[in-house]
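Page header: ASSEMBLY MODEL / two components / 774 residues total.
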Amino acid sequence: MKYDFTYYNPTRIHFGKEAMSKLADELQNFGDNILLLYGKNSIKKIGLYDSVTAILKECGKNVTELSGIKPNPAYSQVLEGAKLCRENRIDLILAVGGGSVIDCAKAISVSAYAKGDPWQRYWIDFESVDNDVIPVGTILTMTGTASEMNGGSVITNEELTLKTGRVFPPSVYPKFSILNPELTYTVPKIQMVSGIFDIMSHLMEQYFSGDDDNTTDYVIEGVMHSLINSARKAVADPYDYEARSNIMWCATIGLNRITGLSKTQDWEVHNIEHQLGAYTDCPHGLGLSVISMPYYRYIYKYGIDKFVRYAINVWGVNPEDKTKDEIALEGIDRLQEFSKEIGIPQTLRELGCTENMLRKIADTSILGGGYKQLDYDEIYNILKECY
Amino acid sequence: MKYDFTYYNPTRIHFGKEAMSKLADELQNFGDNILLLYGKNSIKKIGLYDSVTAILKECGKNVTELSGIKPNPAYSQVLEGAKLCRENRIDLILAVGGGSVIDCAKAISVSAYAKGDPWQRYWIDFESVDNDVIPVGTILTMTGTASEMNGGSVITNEELTLKTGRVFPPSVYPKFSILNPELTYTVPKIQMVSGIFDIMSHLMEQYFSGDDDNTTDYVIEGVMHSLINSARKAVADPYDYEARSNIMWCATIGLNRITGLSKTQDWEVHNIEHQLGAYTDCPHGLGLSVISMPYYRYIYKYGIDKFVRYAINVWGVNPEDKTKDEIALEGIDRLQEFSKEIGIPQTLRELGCTENMLRKIADTSILGGGYKQLDYDEIYNILKECY
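Prediction written out in full:
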């Protein structure tokens, strides 16, 4: 743990089949005006809308609703939610859904009483939050982003065709999150595997950085093992409670900062995928998977020892009689085999990306990286590789 | 993650070489009356006492001191601290030291304004805390107990020759903890390895339970790998910053509940060692190590699949052409080799335990356990094995 850090994560997690029974207790900690935020109708289909609104009613809450939050939540929806919060003097934003709804809830939370233009101040200039923040609570129905236990808020500005993420401080983290793995049973399979690869990508973005022998790297390897193991079981049987519950928790600890402590981190795959998402609206995890393969095959040589370790420790590659390059590349091959095995498309084309988008996606991606800093041409070449 | 849980851990961790620079900021969150709690003179020898009191003075704090907190903190010291808190209207208890001092700080924190007899109510009857709690902050100088980020408070009642632990809720957790690995450099080697085995034991107490395929088990294996690796480096060179910092963080996440979520857990080795500690005052981790070997050799067959997994995943035991029993026992042998390698005595005798204590230790141990519930005679036999 060579690099200094401060860690503080004040989200209270209620996890398990009976987690919803804690909602009424949590609601007592907040005022009466609730903004209920959700996506399309899936929470109605599974009966969750009815059970949540029943609890809100029993607790005597005044409920304002904002639904239709998009998979890539739009800034226009953030402004609409912020207006509703001001008009109805909202005391708690209750986000029911996946990472998109929760990211949007946090964005509304910081924007409602922002001084000046929230987009410019918070998502472009990354200014500190200097206004009142409305508390957020969440009921999670889809895993992947860990938004239920962190400050992440990825928002798409549709006017500008720009999707960008911001990590807010602990004051913006959800105050509580209810995680019942059973609520993820009905997520369509393609969304489930998208979530699984999103988790894997979060772990890799944190893992592939630094040359140190950090405890965090060992923790990540443990979480990766569990994720791979449970992903295979969940693909075979989506009603395998243990597998789905493990995946849900891998997602949460995979990005609640525990797996990133004292790591310099990478995040370039996410940077590129955010722009792919802005142009195609494709499921985030699928985009991450497609981009990861040519990206890692291009950058591995700059952090070869870590890629060798990954191949051996995570994928069980036998290193005997092989060069470091061979071992590292075999690890990436195994990652791709896993991606195929769980049913993820392997090309951008299959995700609705057209050739004329490639240059635009490359040129609007935020530049960052771990072992290697890419330029726009290098990103373009990576995109062509997986087109 | 088959079993439901609620997880909430509001301790703010400042970790690293510059962590102390955060103390002044933290102090602003509390009133002016500070109880400075520490052990013997070691914090004076390393200059820590001077630097902490200088910061307290700069921040304009009124400092009351209570020093001489014992390695197995005595209930009489808890009462003394509680009285000082009431008399001086203490706003923050600042514990500077290892787990003993921090455990004592939490005990003082809940006892100062307790209704009735704190020992009976909180450590015997395990009642809920229904009185005001004084905030605790910590500056850690010795790793092992994770008391810096949990609610644990193990106290010895000297009159009753009874050492017993209580895990308090998050309202009693330290508000902040300052973890500078450099402060652990001067800990005597025997204390360092005692801490290392304490961490390993915490991980094993959580790991050896359940037959499930829990994400937590994979996380534990990752932490165990890092601990073993860094322990060897730290024994070879106590000034290896990366090794010492990894050990410090393994300790914290090894018992801040992350490595225990959705686990039924064991803790019988700790139950027995607490009574060994009450009779001998031996370093906690050394006692744990001595007891662990005959304990695990006795109970492994009741959870054999987990012990086989442990042998293979943690110690790299080659399972080929071996029975499950052989694999499991080879894993325990490797654990004992590791214990010897880092310099831990292997018998109770070497820890100051006399033969006439064995029956008393056995008969006063709290009965619990994971794969197997022991009775007093079984504990006695285990103690005889390692005498």
